[in-house]
Write a structure and sequence with these properties.
The protein is of the alpha/beta class. Helices cover 44% and strands 12% of the residues. Strand 1, helix 2 and strand 2 form a beta-alpha-beta unit. The radius of gyration is 21 Å and the shape is elongated. The termini are far apart.
Amino acid sequence: MATICKRLKVLSVWKSSAAVAPSLQSFSLRKFCTGGSSNIPSHFEKVGFIGVGNMGFHMANNLIKAGYQLTVHDVNSGVMENFSRNGIPTKKTPFEVAEESDVIITMLPSSSNVLDVYTGTDGLLHQGNHLRPWLLIDSSTVDPQTSRTLSSLVSKCFLKERKGFRNYPTMLDAPVSGGVLGAESGTLTFMVGGLEEVYLAARNLFLSMGKQTIYCGGSGNGIAAKICNNLAMAVSMLGVSEAFTLGQSLGIRASTLTRIFNSSSARCWSCDSYNPVPGVMKGVPSSRNYDGGFSSKLMAKDLNLATFPAEELNLKCTLTVEAKKIYTKLCEEGHEQKDFSCVFRHYYSGLDEF
């Protein structure tokens, strides 16, 4: 636990009291029957969702659509009222959610938030070693050690009553890839760590919120995979942005370079699906002044997470360090809430396409 506290001191600059709440003007909950579905096993029916911000809001909404009975909690009163108005039960504390749920899903901004929800006052483990939920799933992006420590704590607990095939509670780490658009459309990819038999049992639950699940191995491995994925994504976005800026300076339109990259060896997601140049691609954050999407603040946090194991293992991760410096600088200059693709405009001074 001392190691975790040391890590959290470094991460404290990124701590948020809650997941960023979705704009209630942009999003609206669909009203669905919450009576459950005959296709859902009884020990999966009652789901508690904690952290209904930009990502969690849509994930929870998709579970409601699939027939799960949800109870939600978030420190943002506005988004809680939105759920309540649409007939979805809300609770004031994580512990109260746990008392109503078979399964708990958390989607929170940082390691410190996750620790608080699990071990803090009125947290999920508030009542010691007896739990009502048999399965706890954390879809937050945290450091692997935090996930493994919490998984160990959960595994030492007992169930208040037996659920399905489990005699004791268990935890899965299941971070996602796909961003807000993927959460809304139900096309997320889940990277899951923990017991494989539990992962297989919960697969349909994940597929109610996404299109793909990938089992990564033991506890903490899902988180480790997500950190590696986001590191590659950050470096890719920097490379694409740098190339576009150079091309513009040499007199080549970004749309022309995009066609070249997408039909040659430079093709990548940062260019063909999430192009950072305003005016080149519709429906991506760069087309709406970099609003929405995956914030620079969260990218900086994830790059910060990636540096811990790299330093501990004495690995040469030069690009990780440089990418962290760039996104930290973006945040310090006031662009922390803008999508991370804004690095094209606000770091490289790239130009819009007209």
